[in-house]
Design a protein that fits this description.
- About 25% of the residues lie in helices and about 25% in strands.
- It has 7 helices and 15 strands.
- It is globular, with a radius of gyration of 21 Å.
Length: about 300
């Protein structure tokens, strides 16, 4: 795997306040790219939207059942452009407003958000956003293998009504782009964009998550001091994990844990247990559309596996 840059440090040779990263993800068959920098600079790149009547012509009647979400021009050369159709009960949550509520919760813990490295992932029209904020060194875990785990706040928001607003804490390992959600540090909000959506609860959720960081750090140290027999782990993957995630995903997880690299199933329809399936070793671990949902499964899976752990 390629070593990723330390999120606490921007490129020292760049004079740009915002830098384009090499990371790309797919969201609903659309490419999303990431910018890195401080929030004050990144916020200027985030588009704003309005909810408008859904009409065939400017002077025509509005559809009484649905409305449309429209991206506002970000410059004099742009025009308004529709990005989605939503119900009458839909409530728009502006990307920047969601982030500001997150930062309000961070400030409550005497952390200055203006010094944090942040990242913003956006689809081409900006209807989907993934915001990330990386916390200072004293929030990090330094395992014996030298690959530091940093605490990261993640926020996912879409303005076209296609997915929920999600806010959570996780641990980011510098040797890959995938995060890890464990135990207590899960300031979790998963809410639909309807009339009941309340952004005012976000600061409290952030504060509750930060208050549980110490418990997560203790749990990470405990895991590092434990080990598991390979054969026992294989049985757990073939049984519990396969039942939870399916055989294909369980097979991939098994080999990622063994080698740090993803695999491709040579025959997706081959029978047998996940540990028995014929595979081709790949170079690295790509992201997946199910990443966010699967990250949320990790605490429960580890809790199930914990009975098999033993002191190193």
């Amino acid at each position: 795997m390629n070593l990723l840059p330390d999120p606490d440090v921007l490129d020292p040779y760049s004079e740009e306040p915002v830098q384009l990263t090499s990371e790309k993800v797919r969201w609903r068959a659309r490419d999303a790219t990431y910018l890195a920098g401080k929030w004050d600079a990144l916020s200027e790149r985030i588009p704003r939207f309005v909810v408008d009547d859904f009409k065939a012509t400017a002077d025509g009647p509005a559809n009484p059942h649905i409305r449309t979400v429209v991206r506002l021009p970000a410059s004099v050369t742009e025009q308004r452009i529709p990005v989605g159709v939503v119900s009458k009960t839909y409530r728009l949550a502006q990307h920047a407003d969601v982030v500001e509520m997150c930062l309000k919760g961070i400030r409550a813990h005497n952390i200055d958000p203006s010094v944090l490295r942040c990242e913003v992932g956006l689809t081409p029209l900006g209807e989907w956003m993934n915001f990330r904020a990386y916390f200072p060194e004293n929030f990090s875990h330094n395992p014996s293998d030298g690959n530091k785990l940093a605490l990261r706040l993640e926020c996912f928001n879409s303005v076209d009504g296609s997915s929920r607003l999600v806010i959570l804490f996780g641990w980011f390992r510098f040797i890959c782009t995938n995060g890890l959600i464990i135990g207590e540090t899960k300031a979790s909000l998963r809410d639909t964009h309807d009339e009941n959506l309340n952004l005012e609860v976000i600061p409290e959720i952030i504060s509750e998550g930060l208050a549980k960081v110490k418990a997560d750090l203790a749990r990470l140290r405990q895991w590092e001091q434990s080990s598991i027999e390979s054969s026992t782990f294989d049985v757990w993957v073939d049984d519990h994990l396969a039942e939870r995630w399916g055989k294909k995903a369980a097979c991939r997880a098994l080999h990622i844990c063994r080698s740090g690299a993803d695999v491709e199933l040579l025959d997706p329809f081959a029978g047998g247990k996940p540990s028995e399936k014929p595979i081709k070793l790949l170079n690295d671990v790509p992201g997946a559309d199910e990443r966010l949902e699967w990250q949320g499964h990790i605490p429960g899976l580890i809790e199930n596996l914990r009975d098999h752990l033993k002191p190193a």
